[in-house]
Known about the structure:
Two copies of one chain form a homodimer. By secondary structure, the first copy, chain A, is α/β, with parallel strands linked by helices. Chain A has helices spanning 15-27, 41-44, 50-56, 60-64, 72-79, 97-108, 136-141, 166-173; strands at residues 3-6, 84-90, 117-120, 130-133, 145-149, 161-163. A six-stranded parallel β-sheet of chain A has the order 3-2-1-4-5-6. In chain A, strand 2 (84-90), helix 6 (97-108) and strand 3 form a beta-alpha-beta unit. The longest helix of chain A has 13 residues, at 15-27. Chain A starts with a strand and ends in a 5-residue tail after the last helix. The mean pLDDT of chain A is 93. Chain A binds chain B through residues 3, 5, 86, 88, 91-93, 95-96, 98-99, 102-103, 113-122, 124-128, 143, and chain B through 3, 5, 86, 88, 91-93, 95-96, 98-99, 102-103, 113-122, 124-128, 143.
Amino acid sequence: MQRIGIDMDEVMADTIQYCLDLYNRDFRMQVAIDQLYGKNLFDVIETAHRPHVHNYFQSEEFFANIHVMEGSQETVRDLMTTYDVFVVSAAMDVPRSFSAKFEWLRQHFPFIPPGRIVFCGDKSIIAADYLIDDNIRNLTAFPGEGIIFTAHHNMHETRFRRVDNWDDVRRMFLSSAG
Amino acid sequence: MQRIGIDMDEVMADTIQYCLDLYNRDFRMQVAIDQLYGKNLFDVIETAHRPHVHNYFQSEEFFANIHVMEGSQETVRDLMTTYDVFVVSAAMDVPRSFSAKFEWLRQHFPFIPPGRIVFCGDKSIIAADYLIDDNIRNLTAFPGEGIIFTAHHNMHETRFRRVDNWDDVRRMFLSSAG
């Protein structure tokens, strides 16, 4: 059985959209996700606001409230019938997020066994055939085939096969259903 | 550079000794580590005491107070000059232990970068040349060469090269210093 590693933030969890929602609320702004095209979040946030936004990521509550990426639950569940699926999240930058991320996965993806969840810093440690990830650093480090999941910041990257959404993931990995 | 994964509990951290210390204190017992030879902890603890001892592992404080395994700090630091070292801990059984384990590592092994720490359930996901671990299930799942670190419960296992302590690890991996 082939193994697929799946990143969490911006692949299973709509982290940046939730962050923008909070930012727009807290500063009465109207930044839309399209304005992040080819950029990182902190490129479009006013300098004076950055410490406040940075603090979002230090809070356990933040991770608990992120929305599920559209279509991810159904497709992950279907992938699990044909592939050995692991969730592979880089959580080491925010140690306080471990428990919140774990609980989030248990709540929204209860069909993924806890033993199939990995928190790591460097994805070169992941032994899998594929890694679906939005982060170019992770995809480059990964020893198997990296599949890039489209996010605002990675639009210009061309080195990896690309999926724009969970329908694309389904088509790529479960082609008979595509 | 070859990569070594190192398990945390009973390899870097003297988990069972600390657990026995608490047990002996709480129930005025005098169970010695030798009595666990070839057995698991719960085999030697009186049935009525098991729920109490089980609860030790549910507490963040428990993980914060475990002693460092003798010689581990010096040898891990020296291994890092020649090998790519990752800490690989199975923390998924006790989700509340993530932060405590992470903080423990930062305190006692500050020279290990956070990006070199992995929390997982199933060590078949670990891409490394060696895994030093006391747990037979982990060693069997691991795709590289498993090195068994002697613990009371694994005395009868013969399928892996064995190290009894951190001096043995040093001799095996840093032979010029042996």
